[in-house]
Structure formats: structure tokens, C-alpha cells
From TrEMBL:
Gene name of the encoded protein: dprA
Protein name: DNA-processing protein DprA
Classification via Gene3D superfamilies: 3.40.50.450, Winged helix-like DNA-binding domain superfamily/Winged helix DNA-binding domain
Organism of this sequence: Novosphingobium bradum
Record domain DprA winged helix: where: 313-367
Alphabetical list of Pfam families matching this protein: DNA_processg_A, DprA_N, WHD_DprA
Superkingdom per UniProt: Bacteria
Family: Belongs to the DprA/Smf family.
Residue ranges annotated for the Smf/DprA SLOG domain, each copy included: 81-291
Cross-referenced NCBIfam families: dprA
Amino acid sequence: MAGQAAALDQGEAFARIRLLRSPNVGPVSYRQLVARFGSAGAALEALPDLIGRGGAAYRPASEARVADEIAAVRRAGARYLFSDTADYPALLREADGAPPILIARGHAELASRPAVAIVGARNASAAAVRLARDFGGALAEAGYVVVSGLARGIDGAAHQGALARGAGGGGTIGVIASGIDIAYPPEHAALQDQVASEGLLLAEQPAGTEPLARHFPARNRIIAGIAAGTLVVEAAWKSGSLITARLAGEMGREVMAIPGSPLDSRSHGCNQLIRDGAVLCQRPEDVIELLEGFTGQPRSTFREEGPVFAGGEAAEAAEPADVAGLLTTAPVSVDELIRQSGESAAAVQLALLELELGGRLLRHAGGRVSLAG
């Protein structure tokens, strides 16, 4: 999956969508299955036997369900982007756990341009909303694609600022936690349509999917992964914006924040980010200076690095390691499991793959895993 294919056979494209929609198959297990069996079609044929070794029956997603989804995507005027094709966002492709498949509506070429994410509070102050709009406009005018999540408050203002610069600006990308055909929040339906028509709208979830709480952290990793840096405008202690910032740090991207008053709880998250090593930004020029010539070596020192393992390692193991007894519902890094088990990385990865496909394993940010609750 690492290389870029010039074209993708329709049968294999259908099989890839079906594999990703099959029970308990996530981005990591998807890549391991394709690496192990050579193609999505071969992986689908092998899945029942692979799961059956643990005594459980397994049925992949039905062809009819996938055909219905593809039809819904077409009705929405959208299309699929596969992670090994040229129109998939290049920086996102490098991120661990990146979506193997995205659904896109709009101008896919925007995903190949330099991008900066702007995120922040939904219940943002009037001053912060104006800042987000001004930063979004100035960064778009400087040629950067402004990426955000189309949420209330800071997200919507950043998109509006970028869109106000028109065709001469860098543009904007909206990443949503629902299906490509679902507008959320409802009051941003017109803005979402404008982003899709003048910029680019991206979704990981199948068409028709309503946004659920667990979809938003997944959406946040896409926002962080597309951009060379993430700017947090206003955020409280515990917010999705800080999740996005942490994910950007894990990916080795720039993390930036606008400081705020210590008397306003909506500024506490940004101030803490700066204390932890995020770069303090007060003007759009500060962001531009930081991102110009970004080479993958960020100057911000905000880091929460997790272990990195190649998803294809499971392809090399003949038998899975016995690691189930080492797992609990508390997340633990995969390298810790390798150390404690004394088994090869490939054997541990294969064991985790089988546990995940059996519905017994959850994967977390930073390469950590746990037993399902």
C-alpha cells in the first residue's frame, strides 16, 4: 500500500471498500491483511478461515451493502480516494493509522497543497471567532489550504475566512465525522455545501452515517494528518482541539497556539499547550514563518511520541504469539508487549490482528492496544 498506483482495478477497488467495511476491520488491520495476502480480494477470501482458527464464525460485509454505499456516494457527487493513489493527501498517507480510504467531494487537488489546520472551541468567544476568521483568510491568501472540522465556533470561522478569499486563495478542506451526505451541525449545512463546491469535503465514514462520539477523535487525526501544522485558537482543558494538537505532535507536525487570558477557561488549553512546547502565535505571519519550508522537522517542542510499527509486519509471521494474557482493558504499547512476550514483532502483530478481527481488541492513538471492554 506504500506505493502510488497509476490506476486501480474496479474489482480490487470494490474489494477494498468491502474489506474496510467488514466487522472489526480498522485501518491497521486492513493494511496488515492486504500486506499478508497481497490484495483485498485475497484477504476477503482468507478472513473466514483466519478468524475460524479461534473457533468463531466470520462473515465479511455483504456485496449488496457495498454496492448500496457506492451508489449513495455517487448520488452525493463524491468519489473514493485510496491511500496508494496520487489524489490521496500526501502528508496524511505518512501518518500511522491513516484511513485506507476516504470519500471526497470537491476539488481533490487541494489535498496536495501546503496545508495548515485551524481548530478550537465550539463555544468560542467573539474575539476568538474573529481571530479564526482573520487567520483563515490571511493563511489562504498566503497560499495555504486551511483545514478544519466544520464544527461550530472556531472551525466554521476558519473555513469562512478561507472561503472569503475566493479562487485566488489557498482554499479550504473540511473533514467531517459523518457520512459525506450528512450535514453536521445542521446549521452548517450551507457552509458544508460551500466547502464541497469551492474547496474539498472529506469523510471517512460510509455515506449515510450519522456522527457518533467515537467518530470525532478519528476525524481529528485526519485533520492533523493532512496539515504540516495545527493552530489551536481557543480551547478548554479537555477538548477535541487538544486531541488534534496531541495527534499533530505524535505525527511530527508543528503545534501552534494563540495565548489567551488565564481568567477565561476557554484559553486554558491553549496556554497549557504553549507551556508544553507549542509555538506561541499572535499573527498569521507567525504561522507562515513557521511553516515555510517545513521539512518534517518541526521547531515546536510539543511532543507525545508513540511507538511506530510497520503495519505489514504481520505478513511475516507463520504463527501468532500468545499475548492475550498480557492484555487488559488499560492501553499498552505494542513494543511493551513484544518485550514482555519475548516473541518477534511479526508474531505479536499477527496475534493482535486476530484478536482485533475477533472483536476482542481495541486500538488507541500512539500505537497502543487494549482488550475490548
